[in-house]
């Protein structure tokens, strides 16, 4: 299990090469250095930083800091450097499941309060400079509401931080088309283990850039990311298709992710669920998209396996809209239970309101008609 040791690793190397014993940094040196930070963490903060979403690992740090600017991160790392034992871990929204954002007896940096606020930048294209502790949900709302722009690659669950997912990968149903989030970053600001604040990109300090992306915080603390933006789609057609047979589900998934250019879907993802009405989490209830949409069990064949499969698809259709037709072409097998939903993205974020529209995809081999949602 990776534990962040950016300060520890570097200091240990120096001590060993000096021919010095690690013990030269006495047992309480870490605590003294924490004192130098001048912040005493509340018991609740320590408890928060000792756990993560997985709930399986409990590792109390010595303290938790909430940096509000990059200089606060620099200071914490510099203080940790003075100890051979004090480790530093950045914590995004704590949605790791194996203790990756914890520091045993060390300093946890809660990145959520980090500034400065998000800013639109023009650098060839349009991008957003985003503090690493921002949630992707906040980036989406800020971009669409203020600028009508959005990143191209998301996580499915948006209450994860920019720094947290860029330190992992960041995948969703858009990754087949645009790559994971780590492939959609123009620039990073990183505080490295020597306490330096460095700006890096594919062409500037590229070693640091590519190490920090997917690096689980082992190569420094990301404090800012520059995320390219594109115009947000006006409308999104959102569909779930349920399958009885895995081969049909997998065959259609493969077909969907290999469409090119204007024939491509914007989002494709799949999941399995339990063929059971009584399981509120993994059963039929996991299929309807929004409150008000209905799963139609009557369409499930009488002889079905205990596991069913669902493809979730989306089409952005401000650029390919055609009135009057409601069909997705070329799905190889007739879906058994279908619900479609069309959402106006900008209003969905703000008020979760919906609006029905229609669209046509490319010339279908075999068109499947969908029930009108709410025309
Ligand atoms: C309910 C749920 C839904 C999820 N959905 C998705 C999904 O749709 N797509 C997906 O790809 N993943 C998903 N994940 C996994 C998720 O991406 C990772 O667990 C991610 O690490 C969580 O982000 P976080 O902001 O909570 O980071 P944390 O869990 O707080 O941190 C993750 C790692 O990144 C490091 N880190 C955090 N911030 C920084 C920083 N600023 N600089 C350097 N290192 C840093 C931490 O030290 C740690 O090693 C999901 C997880 C859960 C629990």
TrEMBL record:
Arranged from A to Z, the UniProt key words for this protein are:
FAD, Flavoprotein, Oxidoreductase
Give the Gene Ontology MF terms in alphabetical order. Answer: cytokinin dehydrogenase activity; FAD binding
- Superkingdom of this protein's organism: Eukaryota
PANTHER family documented for this protein: CYTOKININ DEHYDROGENASE 7 (PTHR13878:SF112), GULONOLACTONE OXIDASE (PTHR13878)
Q: Does the keyword Flavoprotein apply?
A: yes
Domain FAD-binding PCMH-type: start-end pairs: 57-232
Name assigned to this protein: cytokinin dehydrogenase
Q: Which family does it belong to?
A: Belongs to the oxygen-dependent FAD-linked oxidoreductase family.
Species lineage, top-down?
Eukaryota, Viridiplantae, Streptophyta, Embryophyta, Tracheophyta
Mention any Pfam family matching this sequence: FAD_binding_4
């Amino acid at each position: 299990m990776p534990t962040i040791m950016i300060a520890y690793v570097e200091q240990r190397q120096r001590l060993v090469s000096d021919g010095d014993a690690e013990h030269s940094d006495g047992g309480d040196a870490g605590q003294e250095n924490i004192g130098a930070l001048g912040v005493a963490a509340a018991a609740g903060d320590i408890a928060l930083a000792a756990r993560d979403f997985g709930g399986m690992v409990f590792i109390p740090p010595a303290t938790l800091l909430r940096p509000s600017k990059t200089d606060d991160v620099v200071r914490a790392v510099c203080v940790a450097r003075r100890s051979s034992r004090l480790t530093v871990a950045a914590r995004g929204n704590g949605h790791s499941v194996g203790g990756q954002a914890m520091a045993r007896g060390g300093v946890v940096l809660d990145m959520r309060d980090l500034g400065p606020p998000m800013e639109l930048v023009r650098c060839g294209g349009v991008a957003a400079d985003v503090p690493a502790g921002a949630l992707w949900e906040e980036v989406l709302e800020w971009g669409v509401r203020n600028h009508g722009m959005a990143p191209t690659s998301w996580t499915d669950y948006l209450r994860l931080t920019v720094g947290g997912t860029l330190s992992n990968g960041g995948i969703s149903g858009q990754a087949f088309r645009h790559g994971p989030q780590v492939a959609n970053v123009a620039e990073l600001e990183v505080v490295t283990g020597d306490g330096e604040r460095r700006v890096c990109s594919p062409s500037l300090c590229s070693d640091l850039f590519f190490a920090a992306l997917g690096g689980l915080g082992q190569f420094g603390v990301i404090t800012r990311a520059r995320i390219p933006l594109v115009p947000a789609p006006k409308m999104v057609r959102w569909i779930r298709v349920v399958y009885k047979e895995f081969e049909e589900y997998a065959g259609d998934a493969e077909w969907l992710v290999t469409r090119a250019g204007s024939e491509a879907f914007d989002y494709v993802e799949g999941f399995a669920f339990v063929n059971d009405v009584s399981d509120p989490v993994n059963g039929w209830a996991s299929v309807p998209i929004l409150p008000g949409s209905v799963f139609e069990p009557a369409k499930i064949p009488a002889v079905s396996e205990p596991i069913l499969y669902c493809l979730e698809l989306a089409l952005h259709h401000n650029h390919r809209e055609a009135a009057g037709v409601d069909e997705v072409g070329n799905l190889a097998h007739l879906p058994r239970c279908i619900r479609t939903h069309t959402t106006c993205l900008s209003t969905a974020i703000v008020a979760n309101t919906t609006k029905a529209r229609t669209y046509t995809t490319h010339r279908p081999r075999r068109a499947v008609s969908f029930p009108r949602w709410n025309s």
